[in-house]
Specification:
Blueprint (H helix, E strand, L loop, with lengths): L10 E4 L2 E4 L25 E6 L11 E2 L6 E2 L13 E5 L12 H5 L20 H9 L8 E4 L7 E2 L2 E2 L1 H4 L3 E3 L2 E2 L6 H9 L10 H4 L1 H8 L4 H26 L26 H17 L5 E5 L19 H4 L5 H22 L2 E2 L2 E2 L4 E6 L14 E4 L10 E4 L8 H11 L18
Parallel strand pairs: 3-12, 3-15, 6-17, 7-12
Antiparallel strand pairs: 1-2, 4-5, 6-16, 8-9, 10-11, 13-14, 15-16
Length: 434
């Protein structure tokens, strides 16, 4: 097996900018040794975790059947086109999450299954995304990208720190991985080596090298390369546009002061655009192999987000979750639409015989099945084929299995990324069916 190392990657470089390249069939851009003349690189397996707090509509989170004939409940309707790339998994749970029966105690160990300290203390477990990042992070410029759309809550609720509700990625048992809430800064982290004055364009900085590289690749790779550059330019322009309108996602630091007045504290002004930008940044990170591990927290558990663009501005997300109204379903579908958007973008990126979606494990989950704090089974959807290692298009039901630890799924997923552990959390064996 080839071990990719960032130091051997082919990069586009400019003033203060290092920009990784997408998979190209005619050029070994990912640092592996060619086995034959101009043999294409093998695309890596990626891991993305998307989280939506407070669970889902109790009557509309379901799936049955298999492949393209799989039937989906209304919550999952936006994923209709990806039924053959989906695992719908029922019945998995974290035993430790049942001890507090509140949001914080059910969320802080979602990706680790670890016991949580209470009394205002902070102690969880290293999360699955960070375990993988510690093994594979040296292969890429950014070991892991941790994105969020709602600020952390530092308060205490019923003896548990609300930081547990705000973070699912933990780099150590006592250290929640910092969330990047600003798309502009997340974008800069992928492509810029240092903070720059003004709004210098990433593409403008590497334009000369890009033109030279384009002359060395095949016609089909030229089209792919042009599409990639267009994607980068599109995100740049949208961030710049948001900045001109004074929105949160346009804020960026300079060496002496921000380039616009700092927005007020609180939630993003335009949550739909904020989430969409974060989705695009996730895709760009994978497309360029700048990172292979990304966690996107669409909101907090116990969330205060509102959704005026959906006509649902009268109640915060947390309170809305305690109902099964049409508006709650509408909000659920909005979150699932972000998952479908990422899957669609990844599926449009061809990497040899597979697409980037085929080479990805995209886990979508919440820390409770419904807003009524039911964590006896967790809502889990896994999209993608893990580099061809996952047989998708199936419904897996573990409700009657005595060994239904969520951490068994994590052991299986880590196996697909060649991280083999004897134990993780409260699990000692992977799910054989995954």
């Amino acid at each position: 097996m080839t071990t990719h190392r960032f130091t051997r990657r082919t990069m586009l470089r400019g003033l203060g900018v290092t920009m990784a390249l997408p998979w190209l069939e005619s050029l070994n851009v990912w640092g592996d040794e060619a086995q034959g003349a101009r043999e294409a690189s093998q695309a890596p397996v990626r891991l993305a975790v998307l989280f939506a707090g407070n669970g889902f509509h109790s009557k509309e989170w379901w799936a049955r059947g298999q492949g393209q004939s799989m039937e989906l409940g209304k919550v999952l309707a936006p994923l209709q086109e990806f039924r053959d790339r989906m695992l719908f998994i029922r019945g998995l749970y974290n035993a430790e999450a049942l001890k507090g029966n509140i949001h914080s105690s059910q969320t802080g160990n979602l990706l680790s299954g670890a016991p949580l300290a209470s009394g205002g203390e902070i102690h969880s477990g290293t999360s699955v995304d960070q375990v993988v990042a510690q093994r594979h992070g040296r292969s890429t410029k950014v070991p892991s990208l941790i994105l969020g759309c709602e600020p952390s809550n530092p308060s205490v609720h019923k003896n548990y720190s609300m930081l547990y509700s705000s973070h699912i990625s933990w780099s150590s048992p006592t250290t929640p991985t910092p969330l990047e809430l600003y798309p502009a800064l997340a974008f800069d982290r992928l492509f810029k080596d240092e903070v720059q004055h003004g709004d210098a364009s990433v593409l403008d900085s590497v334009l000369n090298e890009a033109k030279s590289l384009r002359q060395q690749i095949s016609t089909s790779d030229q089209r792919k390369f042009d599409e990639y550059l267009d994607s980068v330019r599109d995100v740049e322009q949208r961030i710049a546009g948001a900045g001109k309108k004074g929105e949160l996602q346009g804020w960026r630091p300079t060496l002496d002061k921000p380039n616009l007045p700092r927005p007020p504290e609180g939630i993003p002004q335009n949550i739909a655009e904020h989430m969409r930008l974060m989705c695009d940044i996730l895709v760009l990170g994978f497309q360029t192999d700048t990172t292979r591990i990304t966690t996107l927290k669409l909101n907090n558990d116990h969330s205060s987000l509102r959704f005026p663009h959906l006509g649902v501005d009268y109640m915060i997300h947390h309170l809305l979750s305690h109902s099964d109204t049409a508006d709650w379903l509408k909000v659920n579908q909005f979150f699932v639409e972000q998952v479908a958007y990422i899957a669609r973008k990844l599926d449009a990126i061809q990497e040899g015989e597979r697409t980037a979606l085929d080479n990805t494990m995209l886990l979508f989950c919440s820390s409770m099945l419904t807003g009524g704090h039911d964590a006896s089974q967790l809502p889990v959807v896994l999209l993608g084929r893990g580099g061809g290692r996952i047989q998708s298009g199936r419904v897996l039901d573990y409700r009657n299995n005595p060994n239904r630890q969520m951490c068994r799924l994590y052991l299986s997923m880590m196996d697909k990324m060649d991280v083999h552990l004897d134990r993780f959390g409260d699990a000692t064996e992977p799910l054989a069916e995954v």
